[in-house]
From TrEMBL:
Pfam family, one: BD-FAE
Organism of derivation: Hymenobacter frigidus
SUPFAM superfamilies per record: alpha/beta-Hydrolases (SSF53474)
InterPro entries: AB_hydrolase_fold, BD-FAE-like_dom, GDXG_lipolytic_enzyme
Keywords, alphabetical: Hydrolase, Signal
Keyword Signal part of the UniProt annotation: yes
Protein name in UniProt: Beta-xylanase
Amino acid sequence: MKIPSVLRVAALALLLSGRLLAQQTFPVYSGTVPNSKPSTVQETSLTLASGGVRIANVVQPTLTAYLPAAGTANGTAVIICPGGGYARLSIDSEGYDVAKRLNEMGVTAFVLKYRLPNDESQPDKSTAPLMDAQQALRLVRQQAAKYGINPERIGIMGFSAGGHLAATAGTHFARPVVAGSESVRPAFLVLLYPVISFADSLQHAGSRTSLLGPSPSAEEVRQYSNELQVSAQTPPTFLVHAQDDKTVPVNNSIVFYQACLRHGVPAELHLYPRGGHGFGLDNKTTKDLWTDRLRNWLDANGWLAN
């Protein structure tokens, strides 16, 4: 009889901590997905030999909610945009794992499975990811009371191409690409080894081609080079990058930081000499944890206060 009792206690503890709700997934749009068209495109999921999960061909964007343990939530929320070159989503290492770490800070996290640019399923593939990010911000703001969130404390985080999406959400909110009455301005940005610029000298070619095609116009390149879109209204920003990143040059983060300086936007930049690209939560070249630096930054700005 002792084993069932232990199991019951453990299940109750999990329920009280909110962890049984960790896989609560819901659609970003309640009805027809805007900027979509009938196609044969179907979502695919691949589990790598390392255990990592990659998702591609997203047709129905979703949010997966991760809730802090009962009594620890502080009212701040973060929407997480995994990376993958706008061709796939590293949904675990740059999504679910990060959400759990944020929960430890008392932050409610939502992993965004956003549409990847696809001419077959989207009339305008260049705006589909941003539409999903803006709608996610609106939806979380609409449901703030349900999750115990302060609607003025909803930030957005992104890794690599997901960092480009988060930076775009933080610089293009004045002219939303999806209709709605609620603001789509995030309270803050957290950008990890982000794709920022589509300029020839800084671009991650795969991300630019996936989003804009092989021959984008000069205006399209300018519009989606987010260092050129920073204004005084851009949210406070936290950036992390490694100097030896061979995939997305470190200058992507540096030019965004410099743009924040020019416009008086509070920004904090952490550069590691090594770590390469795509290290997720753990840059194995250092004992320093960027999530500790993030916790300090969030705390200093009042986002961890109850």
